[in-house]
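Reagents: none. Just compute today. tRNA-uridine aminocarboxypropyltransferase.
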Amino acid sequence: MPRPRCERCQRPLAHCLCPLIPSLDSRTRVVLLQHPSETSHALNTARLAALGLRNAELLIGEVFEDLPALLATPGYRPVLLFPGEQAEVVSAYGEGDALPLLLIVPDGTWRKARKLLYLNPLLEELPRVTLGQVQPSRYRLRKAPEAGAVSTIEAVVQVLNMLEQPANFDELLRPFEALIEGQISAMGAETFARNHGEG
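Predicted 3D structure written out:
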C-alpha cells in the first residue's frame, strides 16, 4: 500500500518539507516548464522552487499550448534560462530596467530540456540568459554530467540572487538541502561515502 503523501510538496507525510518551504517575493516572474518524466523524481526541485516563490508557477508537459499568452504576460520581458552561444550572462537589474524578467526555466535532463525547446519553437526564439560564475552544486547524490551543472532550484536561486541583489534567495534551498540530508541518512553513511565520496 502506498505511503500517504503531502498534497503540497508530494513527499511522504513523515518527511513533509512544507515547514521548510519559504514564501518569498521576487520582481522576476519564474515559470518552470517541467518534462513529465521529472514529476516522479524524489528530488523534484522545480516543484520546491515554485512552492517557495510567490511569483512563480510550475507547468508540466511536453507541448505548452498556452505559451503565446504566457510569453505575452504584461509587465515582463520573457527570456529563456538556457546556455548557448547567444546567451547573455545575467546581471543585476539596473535603474534603467523598466521591465523585470519573465524567466522561463526548462526542467529535465539536458536531453529532455532540449526536447522541450524543439517541441515548443516559441522557446527557441526567446533571448537566452545564462549564469556567469556558477557556484558548485550542493546536490551530492548525483554526479553532474558536466562542470557547472546544477539542479533546477539551485539555478533559479543563483539567477535571482544575481538579478535582484542585494535581495537573497538562499532560503529557497532549505527544503532541498533537507531532502538531500534525508536521502543520505536513509542510504547510510558508508554507502554514501562509497558511492558519492570524493575519491
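The two ends are 39 Å apart (CA to CA).
Action item: order primers for follow-up constructs.
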